[in-house]
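Standup notes, protein team

Yesterday: finished cleaning the Solilutibacter silvestris set.
Today: Rieske [2Fe-2S] domain-containing protein structure.
Blockers: none.

Input for Rieske [2Fe-2S] domain-containing protein:
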Amino acid sequence: MRRERYPAIEFPAIASHAVSDPLITLEHIPDHGFAEASGTVDGDAESLILRRDGTRVAAWFNICPHAGRRLDWAPGEFLLSRTGDLVCAAHGASFSPIDGRCTGGPCLGASLRAVPVVVRDGAVFLRDVSGTSATD
Ligand code: FES
């Protein structure tokens, strides 16, 4: 299965803070699919890409490392390659759905910037990397 070719998700440590509201509920993200949500990260409102794998969710800023454009062609509407990679609607760069690494196109070798999230009670929250979360 194509997911086996990617390593486990590792989130880089970034400055973050607790957020009281959920970004989205799990039921609004198709399993093995993507959704878009807005969240406040380091004080800035950001568009985020969320990818669900069962009860696990990975998140990245919705900013392509090639030219800084959003990856979706319309809010929350993402293109996928035949192998399931996320494809930037602007110039076609493709990204691993597991770790956000660029797998082809004009920014090969770059990565989407990960955003740490946690799933609690069927909803996705930004994770507080200082050790506590809004739901603790
Ligand atoms: S902005 Fe995404 S490939 Fe150019």
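Follow-up from PR in the comments: DSSP finds no helices and ten strands in the chain.
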